Amino acid sequence: MNIAKLQKECHEIAVARGWYDGEERSEEEYWALFHSEVSEAFEEWRRGHEVTHIYYNIVDGKPEGVPIELADLLIRIFDYMQQREGIIKPMAMKMEKNMSFPVFIVGLHWFLADSREHFCLDNVVASVISWCEFNHIGIERAIRLKMDYNRTRSYRHGNKRV
Predict the structure, then answer these.
(1) How many domains does the chain have?
(2) Are 121 and 44 spatial neighbours (Cβ–Cβ below 8 Å)?
(3) Which domain covers residue 18, as residue numbers?
(4) pLDDT tens by residue, the chain, 162 residues
(5) Nearest CA among 121, 111, 109 for reference residue 80
(6) CA distances from 151 to 18, 35, 64, 80, 161 (A)
(7) Three-state SS sequence of 73-116
(8) Do strands 55-56 and 63-64 pair parallel, antiparallel, or not at all (unpaired)?
């Protein structure tokens, strides 16, 4: 996975969709959005979707599922880091064998809440990549699917605030 290239692409899509028009997002808004993506992944699992399952919304064709929500988290982090001219450098992480999905989700929230520093985001990205590899989830495919869909979305996804 070429993270530097993905960072640039994610940011270009965000700019094209209007996310950098007008008032700049605060740091708190970015971090709240990171947490919201983690929670959305958990909600997909709560609704009974397997962690590997990707499905498509019948109304608009939007890709959905745990892998897509984890991809959304990485897309937001990549965009944030590119905008700040930072580079994500995920370290190899050892995942606990048979780590449950809820434990993984709590760990992501913990990493995000522990510190609002860029090195913390390296840990989040590394955790997502490692957990997905361990659970046979094609996270790069999920990122591509969601980025492709995002390219088709309206301005600020219907004029959302952040």
Answers:
(1) 1
(2) no
(3) 3-159
(4) 888 899 899 889 988 888 888 778 888 888 999 999 999 999 999 999 999 999 999 999 999 999 999 999 999 999 998 887 776 666 656 666 678 999 999 989 988 887 666 668 888 898 999 999 999 999 999 999 999 999 988 776 665 555
(5) 121
(6) 11, 23, 16, 17, 19
(7) HHHHHHHHHHHCCCCCCCCCCCCCCCCCHHHHHHHHHHHHHHCC
(8) antiparallel
